[in-house]
Structure formats: structure tokens, C-alpha cells
Amino acid sequence: MSVQNALQNIDAEIIVVDNNSPDDSCAMIKQRFPQVTLIENEENSGFPKGNNIGVAKAKGEYICILNPDMVVAEDTFEKVLAFAKTKSDLGIVGVKLIDGAGKFLPESKRGIPTPFVAFTKITALYKISSVFGKYYASHINENQTGKVEILVGAFMVMKKATYDEVGGFDENCFMYADDIDLSYMVLKSGKSNYYFHETTVIHYKGESTVRDEKYMQRFREAMDFFYRKHFRVSFLFDVFMKTGAFFFSIIKQKQAVEIADKTDEYLLVSNDKNRTRKVENLLGKKVVTADSATKNTINSLTNRSGKNIEIIFDNNYWSFQSIIESMEALRDANYTFKILPANTGFIIGSNNSNDRGKIKKIIESLNYEIESET
Prior knowledge:
Layout: H1 2-6, E1 15-18, H2 25-32, E2 37-40, H3 47-57, E3 62-66, E4 70-71, H4 76-84, E5 90-98, H5 115-122, E6 146-148, E7 155-159, H6 160-165, H7 178-188, E8 192-203, H8 213-230, H9 235-255, E9 265-269, H10 275-283, E10 287-290, H11 295-301, E11 309-314, H12 320-330, E12 336-340, E13 346-349, E14 358-362, E15 370-373
């Protein structure tokens, strides 16, 4: 929905590639979004091949690779395209990404993971000194636009001609190193990649990837793929990288354990106070309603004093852009956030970058009765 809103003033098409989803995703898209071009693959061939299939169908000059677990602001694509058109050496443009708690995701901008840079990441040396900060492109901060080497595949804007020139995503890599490889191939073609900070996109990390044994295996395979393709390192360092990637993936798996809901109070940000009772029936707790999401308003309506506050934004009255801006402004207060998209039957959100995205189903009616959680 947020993507549709952001394309209202742009001549664009939306192409959804489904890699043989086991649920009713395709039926839902056909019913709710009939104008979307849906490609239904008969098998899960991986992120790279799925994107290559979708891009092959695209007709526009520019393409945007976008994960399904993203929320964009209404002006995101207009801003990114305006910026892209000013760059004669344009490679890929990435944007500022935040998680479901409004916190900046450092992988929004990265450096080439050469053996030494990867070593500083695995050993956490990048946290000690900016000298070792190339992995997360520390030469610019989250609120600066500039050239970077590697961008995350969750959001990439580039010319279709450039994508075709470098051969798109390498289908020999199932996932996890594909965006690093594509970014690096674009650099090798003589173009520049840019991190663009003037628009923010929510990435509900965990929604599209389950951190299980397959994740660990594919992560190790991805690292091995990238180094063998571009660096052809020595046997000893190859062993070291495999070992490091293995322990790193274990840590990520532990971080991704679903976090229990510890919310004490809820705040519904909506102009319709009648929704309060409906949400209270779902949650079994008192809900405060406000028509503003400013920090002062929220602090005046909630008593922090050690309590965990969850804010539910009603997109029927608040744009995705205003919701994203509020999440960023309030992120340091450790609130959690959810979104009720306009005219839909879902409340979406996650509590942090390690928590899987959640969807609360609601009955699609004028009163938005809430039924269950999945």
C-alpha cells in the first residue's frame, strides 16, 4: 500500500515476484491489488533469480529492488529519482533504513567486505575506532548523503540499463551476498553508488528471512561465494572466514529469537477516538487516544516511570511519511510502534531489528474489529 501511495505522481509499474509462497499471498494480491503485475514462480529459486525475472519484465528507465517487508514514505521515490537524475556517474542509490523501533539500520551504507574489513566486522573492531569503520561506511553518518561502496538489496534504485550491463544479481548466490556482489559489480563498471539520507524507509527485518539452520548454511555459502569470486583468498584465510561467518550467523540466529510482548500501555494515534474501544477489546488493556504524535503530546499522555509504551499509528489519518518521522523522533525513548494501514485488515510492526515482523488480522469493516494474531 505504501508503495502505491508513493507512486501516485510517477509513471510507474509495480511488479511482484512470488517465489512459490505456501500461503495465500498471490490470491490476496490478485484480489486487493489487481493493477499489480504478479509473477508466480513454481519454485523458490532464490532472491537473485526472482529479481532478475522481475526486472526482465520492467519497462521503465529506472528500477527499484524492494523487499516485501518495507514501508516507504509518500515522497520517497520522487526524492530518490530527483537525486538520481543529478548524477552523471549513477550506479545504485540506497536510502536511510530504520527498523520497526525507529532505529537506524547501519547496513544502509557499507564498504566492500575485503578480508581486512570483514575481519574488523567479525571481531567488532569497527566499534572501537573509526579507523576500522569501513564496514559500515563510517566516513559519512546516517544524516549525510554521499558515495558509498555497498548498498543493501532491500532497497536499491538504479537504471535498468546499468542492471542489465552488469548482468543483474548473480544467480549462483542464493541470497545474503547478492547485494554486495551487485554493488561491487556496479563499482567495477566505473559507476558510483550513493547513500541518500533525505528519505527514510522502514525495514521490518526478520519478516522475509527466518534465522534457522538454513540461514546459517546460506550465510556461510554466501561469504564463501563472494570471496572466491572477487578475492580468491589463501586457504588459511578461507578457513578463517568460514569459521567467522559460522559464529557470526549463530549470533544472528540467537538475536532473532521472537521477543515476548512486554507492553504495559498503548497509545492509539488517531483522529477517531471511537477506535479506542475496539483496540481495547483486542488488547485487553486500556488505550489512550491522541490526534498528535509529537514527543511532548505522547509524554504528556503516558507515564513512562519504567512502563513499556506501544504506539499504534492510524494511517487513515496519518501519512506514512509522518508516521516514519514520528518513529525516528521518538526512537530514543524506547517506545515500540505498530501501524494500522488505511483501509486494510492488518496492523503491522516489529519491536526491533531482531524481532520478526508481526501482522495482527482484523475484520475488514468500518469498525475495524480485531480478530486474531499471526
